[in-house]
Design goal:
alpha+beta; 3-stranded antiparallel sheet; 19 helices; 52% helix
Length: 479
């Protein structure tokens, strides 16, 4: 975000934090839960700093602009028509509101929040730092494939329109105009919108929230088109990302950037669950390569790395599902217990805003529970745990915890364990854990963490008592 000369760095950081909250709020952004006072409580920032962040985000990253009264200033009021993110391009289209709809009841405060959420999603997308043509990037390859090479003036690009009135389509392409020009035009067009709920619809905000941690890649919302839920799985629509290694995503959003190896590990886990593979069953690279759109050689190389880590078995005949025992899982849970205790003690002394990503991830746990899908709750819970690990400020412990979590995920898939009956307990434990950390009560958080893992092992023992040795867990988890 652009800052004025002499402005303290705290405001720029606050802008980033508040933008992460607004971008992931979805349609709920219009409620009192996202007032400046509540966001200040959530982040630990002062209300004055949060209010200034709201204004700067809504205005496209500069001081001034929106003062809390928004929309309807144009003689021909507008509404958002389409938002499309397809690397290396973002397009935000506006169109005039039909005359018969211009009498909608004004809701300036609700509209202002919705508009700020759209601007926040653009800010946290990372698109400002996309590579420009000429550095071997996708943008360069696009040009080589036949896209126009003449960038033209900034005005030509920012006002670019295809199939719509000039000046009503804001387009961002790296190297063709500035990011500030683009966000400034979007903010200006929002100023001309009708200040009703439908100018920036809830289903658009839901799709942006679900993709906020993924750089908005794949967002393609069109007014009157199918809802996002028709295009994405339950896990995607709930914004439940898998867990990447620490430190590669936005500081304030739940992590979502995945290496090729991690993508393949996730695909393997889903294949094992969906196809009912058992230990020893052979897995070939070709179906995974086709599903992921990757070369077979790339997939085989990643599978070899997974085999080196014990997540696949390998031999002369290729790759197969590893032999996994209940003792292996208890071993991993005990290791995660002890590393997790270290991380929770680190979390408890962090400032409140460092826990923002974990608090957003907790919201994903609660959303998955409301949907009643046990597999999604399991995914969201492990993501929540990884966000806590990353917030602790202990990089080596966080990396160890991440590696253990990847192994747990694969092994639980192999054993075909169902977490649906444990959903209520998972949500209850996660809420209590977060409350203790926010209060700085490290040892109470550790106690809840131990109980949480105890409950998980008991659940697994109840599902397969012959496979899980309760005495082994008691020995390994002793502190």
């Amino acid at each position: 975000m652009a800052s004025s000369r002499g402005r303290p760095r705290i405001q720029e950081t606050a802008d980033e934090i508040v933008a992460s909250v607004l971008a992931t709020a979805g349609p709920r952004v219009r409620t009192s839960e996202f007032s400046t006072r509540r966001v200040a409580e959530l982040t630990g920032l002062s209300q004055a700093v949060v209010s200034r962040a709201f204004r700067r985000i809504r205005a496209g990253g500069v001081d001034g602009g929106w003062d809390g009264v928004a929309g309807g200033a144009s003689a021909t009021p507008l509404q958002v028509q389409r938002v499309q993110v397809s690397f290396p391009m973002i397009r935000v289209e506006f169109r005039p509101v039909a005359e018969e709809l211009r009498g909608a009841v004004p809701r300036p405060t609700a509209f202002s929040r919705r508009a700020a959420a759209l601007m926040a999603a653009l800010q946290v997308s990372g698109a400002r730092d996309w590579p420009i043509a000429g550095d071997g990037s996708l943008a360069q390859r696009e040009d080589e494939a036949g896209a126009p090479k003449d960038a033209g003036s900034a005005a030509d690009v920012v006002g670019e329109h295809v199939g719509g009135p000039a000046g009503l389509d804001a387009v961002w392409r790296p190297g063709r105009g500035t990011w500030e020009d683009f966000t400034g035009q979007v903010a200006s067009l929002l100023d001309q919108c009708l200040s009703g709920d439908d100018a920036v619809p809830g289903d658009l905000l839901q799709q942006l929230a679900a993709r906020a941690g993924r750089g908005l890649h794949g967002v393609d919302w069109r007014r009157g088109g199918p809802s996002a839920s028709r295009h994405h799985s339950d896990s995607e629509s709930l914004a439940v990302p898998e867990y990447p290694a620490p430190g590669r995503a936005s500081r304030w959003l739940p992590h979502a950037q995945l290496s090729v190896t991690e993508q393949i590990a996730i695909a393997l886990r889903k294949e094992i669950m969906n196809a009912g593979y058992r230990p020893g069953d052979r897995i070939t690279a070709a179906p995974l390569a086709s599903r992921l759109g990757l070369g077979a050689g790339t997939v085989r190389a990643a599978m070899r790395r997974l085999a080196d880590d014990g997540l696949l078995a390998s031999g002369a005949g290729g790759f197969s599902v590893p032999q996994v025992t209940g003792a292996d899982v208890i071993d991993l849970y005990a290791a995660r217990l002890h590393v997790g205790m270290v991380l929770l003690r680190g979390c408890a002394v962090q400032p409140r805003h460092r826990l923002l990503s974990a608090r957003l991830a907790l919201g994903a746990v609660e959303a998955a529970a409301r949907e009643g899908i046990g597999a999604d709750v399991d995914q969201a819970d492990l993501q929540f745990q990884q966000e806590l690990a990353d917030a602790a400020g202990l990089d080596q412990s966080a990396r160890s915890f991440h590696a253990l979590t990847l192994r747990v995920r694969m092994f639980i898939s192999v054993l075909q364990l169902d977490y649906t009956p444990a959903v209520d307990r998972i949500v209850h434990d996660d809420r209590r854990l977060m409350a203790e950390l926010l209060a700085g009560r490290a040892e109470d958080a550790v106690r809840i963490w131990r109980g949480k893992l105890d409950n998980a092992v008991r659940h697994m023992s109840a599902l397969a008592p012959e496979a899980f040795d309760a005495e082994l867990w008691a020995r390994l988890s002793r502190v």
